[in-house]
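Q: My labmate handed me this sequence with no annotations at all. I'd like to see what the chain might look like in three dimensions before we decide whether it's worth expressing. Could you predict it?
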Amino acid sequence: MLIEINVYNISVDYMLFNSYIYIFLFLPITLLIYFLLNKHKFIQLSKGLLVIASLFFYSFWNIKYLILIVCSMLFNYSIGTTLNNYEITHLKINRKAVLAFGITINILLLSYYKYFDFFINNINSLFKADLPLLQIVLPLGISFFTFTQIAYLVDAYNKKVKEADFLNYALFVTFFPHLIAGPIIHHREMMPQFARLKNKIFSHKNLSIGLFLFSIGLFKKVILADNLSGFVSQGYDVVNNLNFFESWLVSISYTLQIYFDFSGYTDMALGVALMFNIILPLNFNSPYKAHNLQDFWRRWHMTLSRFLKDYIYIPLGGNRYGKLKTFQNLLTTFLLGGLWHGANWTFIVWGAIHGFGTIVHKLWKKLNFKMPAVLAIISTFIFINITWVFFRSENIHIALKMLKNMFGANGFLPPKIFHCHLRLEHLYSLTLDDITNTFYIIVLSFGLLFVSNSNQLTEKFKPSLWTAIITAFLLFICISNLVQPSEFLYFNF
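A: Here is what I predict for the chain of 493 residues:
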C-alpha cells in the first residue's frame, strides 16, 4: 500500500551549498556584484540581480521547473494584491473567497507534484486497480516556497503585509539562501531588511560572522552528517541482521545525521544571508536538549513549527474550545506536519506519534507530574530517536522490523556478520570497528548536550585572528573532503 521511492540515492545534478561551484564561483560573484551595484546607487538593479541569481541557482537543477516557480510567484502576487485592494467592509466575504481560492490552488499544485502518485498507488492497493503511476519528479523546494507564499496570502488577508512591487515580492520568495530548504520566512520580517539603506553597505563584520556560521554548517554537513550517512544506509540495508545493540547504534546515528544535515544547511543559509546583511529567522536551538515534546518542537525546525501553529493549529481553534477539541487540533496539526514531509505512510505515522506524544505530555503536565531534568532530557531523546525510525524507513515494514530489533527481537549480542556490513568512513578514511563507532556516536551525542550551539557561538563571535584561523581551518577540512557533494536530506521533503 506504500509508494517505495528510494530518496536516499538520488544523483546530485544541481548546485549545492557544499559544492565547489557554489563556494568558489556563484556565492562570491553574486556578493561582489550585489554590493558594487549598491555602492553605485543601483538599488533596483541590485534587487534584480539577487532575483536573477536566485532563479539561476534554482534552475541549475532543472530549468523546466523555472516556469513553475515564476508562475507560482505571479499567481500569489496577484492574489495578494487583490486581497490588499479589497478595502470596502461589506466585501469581506469576497476577500475570504479570494484567500480560499489562493490557498486551494497552492495546495493543489503541491499535492499534484508531491502526493498524486501516492494517491494513485493507494487507490490501486485498496481497490485492486491497475492505474498507471505518473512518475512525477518532485520539484526542488516546492514545499518551502509554497508554505512561504501561503503564509504571505494569510498575512495579506489579515492586513499584516502589503506588497505593491513584484520585484520585491520575487526577492522575498526566491532569495537563494532560504529558497530550497528554508527557513520558512515571513514577508514582514524580511522585506524591511532589504529596504534598509544601511544594509546596502558592505559589512566586514557580517561577512566574518557569516563565513564563520557557514563554516560551522559546512562542517556539520560534510564531516559529521555525510560520515554518518553511509553507516546509516548500510545499517538499514541489513536491517534483518541487526540485534539490539546494532539497531540502537544505527537509529541514534540517523538521529544525529538528520540533525547535523538539516541544521548544517540552516547554518549555511543564515551565514550566507548575513553576508548580504540579511538576518534569517533561527530554525534550530539545541533540540536534543529538550525536556519534553513541546519543548522539542520549539527548538527543532522552528519556522515550520511556527507555521503549523499560526496557520493550522490556531485557525482550527487552538486550545480555545476545551480539552477534547484541543487534542483533536493537535493531532490534526501533527498529521498534516507529517504529511508535509513526504508522500509515505511512514511520515503520517511519524506525525501521529508526535501528536499523541504531545497530548500525553499535556495530560502529564495537567496532573502536575514532574521529572528530574536529566531524566526528562534522556526520555525525550529516546522518544525522538524511536520516532525517527519511521522518518528514515522506506516503508512501515522496515520501520517495524527496526523497532523490533531495538527491543531485542533479534538478540542482544553483536553477531560477527555486523563487522562485515557496517563501516563508518571517518575524516581520514579510517575504517572504524563497532567499539570506535560507539565511541564516535557517544562523543557526538554529548557534544550536542554540552557544547554551545551555532546560534550561541555566533552571538559571542568577535572578529579576530583566532576566529579567522578557526574559520579557515573548518573550511579547509570541509573543502578538502568535497569529493562528491551530497544532497541535503530535506531536499526530499
